[in-house]
Each structure stands twice: as C-alpha cells, then as structure tokens.
Amino acid sequence: MLRRTLADLKDTTLKQLEEVLAPYLENDLVVQNKGDSYFKFWNGSEILYRGLEATGSTDKDRKKFFSAEYGVIAVDEAREMKEQDFLDLDTRLRRRLPSGEFPPFYFLMATNPTQNWIKSRFILKKVDNPEDYVFIPALPSDNPHLPEGYVDQLRANFSSEPDLVDAYLNGSWDCAEEPNKIIKWEWVKQAIGKDLPRIYGNRVLACDVAAMGDDETVIYYGEGGQVIDAMIYKGKTTMETAGNLAFLARKHGVDVVILDAIGVGTGCFEQTRNLLEGVRSHKSNPVKVIGFGAKQTEKEKESVRGKFNNLKSLAWWKLRGAFKEQRISIPNDDILHAELADVEFNTNYGKITIESKEKYKERNRKSPDRADTLVMFNYANDIQIQCAHKDYGRVKSKLHERQRQIKQNAKQAGIRSY
To answer: Would you give the distance in Å from CA 373 to the centre of its chain?
Structure first.
C-alpha cells in the first residue's frame, strides 16, 4: 500500500485502515509492526505500507523496495506517482503463494481526475492492451461514510469554479489543466507584465524570510496589484533583511509591510516593526507592519471559518481569484511562474486546504519562496483595497449628511438652495 510519501499515507489512508482492522488487532488476529511499517495476518499474509519517495530514503532502500515481489499493489493519490514508477512496480506483481500457485494479481490506484499518464492509459485507453486498464468511477455521492453535508459544502465552496465542481463531484476528466493546482498556467502567462491601474495608490512591501540555508529571502514591492521591483538573495541574517525592508519602505513610501511572523520570520518581524516605528507612508499615515501567520484577527477567523482550513489557504484562494480575474501583474520570472503553477490544494472534509511548504518541498526539493511572497503581497493589497472602499463609503456618507444639514439650515433661514 503506497503513496508518494509515507507521512501523507499515515495522515490519511493508514488511519482508515487501522480503524477497519481494529477488531482484529485487539484479538491478535492481525499484528502491526509500526517500526517496519507492515501488518501481519493470522494466515501469513502481510500488508506493507510505504512511501515511494520517503524522506531520508537512499538509492539502496529504493532498489530494495522495487525489487520485492507482491501479489497486490494499491496506490492512493496515484496522480502523485510518476509513470516510470508505475511501470517498474507493475513488473513486481509476481509473488508465488506457499502452495506454489500464483494468485490473481491486481494493481489498484485511487485518484481524482488528472491530466497526465493516468488519463492517457485508463480513460483514453492509449495503450496496446486496453482491456487490462479498467476505470471504476467512485463519486462522493457513492460514499456513505462522508460527513453529512460534505457534497453541499464542496458545491458551495466551488460555486464560482464549475470545472472543479465537475471534477470533484461528477468525476469529469475534461478539465483543461490539473484540477488540484491552485493557479492555472494559463492565468500565470496572462499576468506577466500586465498593465494595471494603480487602484487607490496603495504601496505594499512583502517578504518571505529565510534563514542562512538554501531557501531564498524574497522581497516584492508593488502598487495596486502590480509587482514593480524585487530583491532576492540567500545567506543573510534576519537583521539584514529587516534593514532592507526598512530602507525600501522609506524609499518607496509604502503603506504596508507584510512578512511571515512565524518560525524564522518572527525575529525579523519584530526588528522591522521597531525600525519603522514613527515612519510615515507617502500618504503621511504611519506605515503598517503586518505579521502574516501570527495571531489572527476576529475578522480573519470569520473569513476562514467553514470554507478554509487555515489563513494560508484563504490567502492562496484570494491570490487564485486575483489571477482568475486578471487583477494582478507579475514579473517575467520563470522560477516564480513554475512555483505558482505547481502548488496544490485539496478539499478534505469539505474545506479548502493548501499543501504545506514542507510537502511542496518534498515534491520539488525546494521551497516556493517567491510564490509565498506573492501570496502575502496580494493579501496585503486586498486588505488595503477593502479599507479604501470602507473609507470612501464613510466619507461619502458624511458628505451626504453634511449636504442634507446645509439644505435644512438654508430652508429654516428662508434661503433658497439649488
């Protein structure tokens, strides 16, 4: 039983298998060896659970894994698996029973609709032996174990995304791109160097802070949804990054500085806030320093509740909306483009969840630092636009009230108003 990483398998399918086997485990009919990751049954059969690309695995471990013999292979989230891994594993279905006979061999895979080799082999049947590739639809409506209201929640969450509703609820394989990718490649291409009006003149500085390792520290400056300038580097201290942010904030007269305030970013956030104390923006207002990922406001909690798993997922969904509606302009940066088009999300338990930075790094061997910075840039810009709308509405209301009062006073004084 496999998934791309053992950690993901343990968090999902393994838990369900343990629940199913609980009565047998309690009566010692099945024994679980958590150290070596297998179940052994009373009749001698074994279920091994593994990760195709387990963290810390060596070439020797991988060769041993792909040289074993199996009777059944089952893969969860098969879209994560490379086609070559599928072909290599298929040759390992050759285990002989103690009787000397071969059992019926099965290669079982579960996946959401996807646009890769799985669709080519199982849906389009672009193979020499199509009768060996059987597709069995399994829709949410077929699953009696889902939480009550799961389908309705998914439909509500994706009410503006008919392709995703079709993929997740109706099992459609006709999406033009991967349905689990948060940003479509087509949207990324449309946003490169796009001219945008600088709405309300809001100036934003966003930063994803890295330590002294291989990750990048990324700083984006922009206005009205358009990234205008970037500073990207490795190997500098958080104090140096705080100094860079303070310098750029003064140089551009920014309204908002936003940076991650958890992990390595915590110290940089405090240092930046101290350096910008008393500094004013181009509008003569105090520069606002936001710690992204720190303690959420009540408004943020309300926005996340019900639809999203966390604030990060909400912020990525806002970025998705900005790309979809062409409200964002990005630099011509191949690394940024690749990161944006490869971040994944899921809808486990009816809530939208963006994959963690750690899981992305397992898949790509690097962090999506530039994409994460753009997420914060857009989130801060979105907050500023909402504030501007609110301020405009408040001012407009006060003007109407003032005009009404002037007319009333003029009427009482017998003065005709026009």
So the answer is: 13
d(CA 413, CA 371): 63
Mean pLDDT of 285-296: 85
Domain ranges of the chain: 2-170, 189-392
Q: What values do phi and psi take at 45, rounded to 5?
A: -70, 155
User: Which residue's entry shows tokens 């690097």?
Assistant: 366
Average pLDDT over residues 350-363: 83
What secondary structure, in 3-state letters, does 366-392 show? CCCHHHHHHHHHHHHHHHHHHHHHHHH
| pLDDT(188) > 80 | yes
Summarize pLDDT for 72-130 with one digit per residue, the tens. 999 998 988 888 889 999 999 999 999 999 999 999 999 988 877 888 889 888 888 98
CA gap 63, 132 in Å, rounded:
27
**What secondary structure letter does DSSP report for 80?**
G
Contact 370, 267 (CB under 8 A): no
Distance CA 418, CA 406 (A): 11
Query: CATH homologous superfamily for 2-170?
Result: P-loop containing nucleotide triphosphate hydrolases (3.40.50.300)
* Distances 65 to 37, 41, 60, 203, 359 between C-alpha atoms, Å: 13, 21, 9, 53, 22
The rounded distance, in Å, linking the Cα atoms of 128 and 117 is: 14
Where b means 16+ CB within 10 Å and e means fewer, 139-162 reads: ebeeeeeeeeebbebbeebbeeee
SS3 39: strand
Rounded-to-integer distance, Cα 169 and Cα 154, Å: 8
300: number of Cβ within 10 Å = 15
Beta strand 217-223 with 226-233 is antiparallel
Q: How many degrees, rounded to 5, is the angle at CA 122 between CA 127 and CA 47? A: 110
Classified by CATH at the fold level, domain 189-392 comes out as Nucleotidyltransferase; domain 5 (3.30.420)
Residue listed under structure tokens 């390992």: 92
Q: How long a stretch of residues is the chain?
A: 418
Instruction: Give which of 111, 130, 109 is closest to 121, Cα–Cα.
Output: 130
